[in-house]
Amino acid sequence: MTRKLGIAVIGLGPASLPHSKSLLDLSDRAEVRFAVSRSAERAQSYARQFPFPTTTDLDAVLADPAVDAMIVLTPPSAHLEISARCLEAGKHVLVEKPLELTSERGQRLVDTARRTGKIFGVVLQHRFRPASLRLKAALDGGELGTIEAAFLAVPWWRPQSYYDEPGRGTLARDGGGVLLTQAIHSLDLFRSLVGVSRVVAAQARTTALHRMETEDYVSALLETRDGAPATLVATTAAYPGHPERIEITGTKGFAALIGGRLRLAFLDGREEIIEAEGATGSGANIMDFPHDAHRAVIADFLDAVEAGRDPVVTGEEALASQRLVDDILKAARGGA
Question: CB within 8 A of 334, min separation 6: which ones?
Fold first, then answer.
């Protein structure tokens, strides 16, 4: 039998929960050799939930030849430093979204991955939902015809207590607000489906519902890769939080992807529905969603390592979505 891939998880905050559940499911393919946190207290708390060895010694983990790959789940401000260290140590890396605080730092990370020749992927799991995969197949196969219009809405909710946590909603820790931290998943999926060739206009603001440095409401007029009009609205001020929504109008039909539920309605009278797999984390409980898509992301990463190929969501793909965030916010500030 092929040896299981040795995995280390770095960062044991809330983001580690769906990843750790996924790694338990994938235990026939991967062995978690270390779960790493700089906080001994957090490591102890994590050890009460998952049967993986914990440590605060990242240097020892990087030096262990039995560790093939790292899953980096730290805040974005640490992605470049930690992921680059892992790559330079000869480890493959799967890093949580967003890629980094800024596109410039993200580019440095992508460049490091390409230079070292290691497999590098980014956790943008909405692409892996069954409904998302079916919608992409329908678009790629021309089932909806030519795209005439597209719409993306992310009407989520975060209470003020969420932003009261140190660094939440700041440029120094998160790199941005609703677009980069919450809506990036849906924005990345939307971009992968219809492409975005231009930001026509945008608005961004911080509503009176939150005290935070960055934006909690954004609207934008976009153009798809084929020049069709597209509209975006994203917020964390839509109490109590609602599933994200993508709508695509084509010459042969209409698609509505609401959370994980897809409805395809064709002009010839046919209809197809794929039901949702659960909640989407749109409300106050940020981890209120199933881990199926995370498991699919990690499985794809393991496949990529074993086959020596790129994962579905490469660093370049994540960087393209982050640069779209930059373009939207630049337009909101009055930039060309």
Answer: none
User: pLDDT band at residue 207, thresholds of 50, 70 and 90?
Assistant: very high
Phi and psi based region of residue 142 (left: phi greater than 0; alpha: psi -120 to 50; beta: remaining): left
Strands 229-235 and 217-224, by their bridges, are antiparallel
Give CA–CA dist 20/5, Å, rounded. Answer: 15
33's CB contacts (< 8 A; 6+ apart) are 6, 7, 8, 53, 61, 64, 66, 67
- Average pLDDT of the residues in 287-311: 93
Mean pLDDT of 303-307: 97
Query: Quick one: pLDDT band at residue 282, thresholds 50, 70, 90?
Result: confident
Q: Is the pTM of this model over 0.90?
A: yes
Cβ proximity of 55 and 85 under 8 Å = no
Give the end-to-end CA distance of the chain in Å, rounded to a whole number: 56
Are 175 and 269 spatial neighbours (Cβ–Cβ below 8 Å)? no
Q: Which residues contact 14 (CB under 8 A, 6 or more apart)?
A: 286, 287
pLDDT of 196 > 80? The answer is yes
Domains of the chain: 5-123+294-312 (3.40.50.720), 127-290 (3.30.360.10)
